Amino acid sequence: MKSPVFPRLALASCTPVGIAAAFLMIASPAEAAVTTLQLDWTKDPSLTPGGSAPWITATFTDMAPVAGVNVVRLSLDTSNLVKSVDVEEFITRFYFNLDPSFTNSVSWTVINPAGFITIDHDEDSLGGGQPLKGFDFELAMPTKKADRIIKNDPVIVDFKGIDLTASLFEAVTDDDFLAAAHIQGLSEPDPRNSVWIGDLAPNISPIPETSSSLSVAMILSAGLSFRARRRR
Length: 232
Fold this sequence. Notes:
Blueprint: H1 16-27, E1 34-39, E2 41-42, E3 56-66, E4 69-77, E5 90-96, E6 107-112, E7 118-127, E8 133-140, E9 149-150, E10 155-161, E11 177-184, E12 194-200, H2 213-222
Antiparallel strand pairs: 1-3, 2-12, 3-4, 4-10, 5-8, 5-9, 5-11, 6-10, 7-8, 11-12
């Protein structure tokens, strides 16, 4: 996978104050306490879950350390899946990444639903078919009707590691996906159908040109690139 996705730097002002503020942002980026991934891309445009996108939202949150070890909590929001008399959509797989620069060991505990989710960690090796492959982590969820993860069912997993932070989970695959999931139980055209969904990051955003050649030169010499999250 690639490194995390960073917010795009907007050089809206070429004044000395604006330039100074911009470089202060580069020099001292704020550590985000929360990373949110919104799965609103579908592999088959003709087949989507019945609810509104994003169909699954994953939130990574920095929690209080335990015995000096950082804790990041993953929560899956399934409220946009459909549950009715005739339809019951459910999630069977969820994939995501960890920044490759993080080399410390990571452990995890399934908080909810305990005993019903298995987790696999295999760098760059997990996922479905092209292009939703090459992820680092897989959450496998039950398909038995009584145990399925359906609309509004909470999924909570705690990850622990020295220096682990929520921002480290905002990394992309070689095909620029931050996360992917497999949804089953769709109503149309056949209730047996399923669909793959994902959170697709945008292409690298160019740094806007300014009238200050000095500021451009400084940015280029720093070798920095910025990616903008797609917000829809």
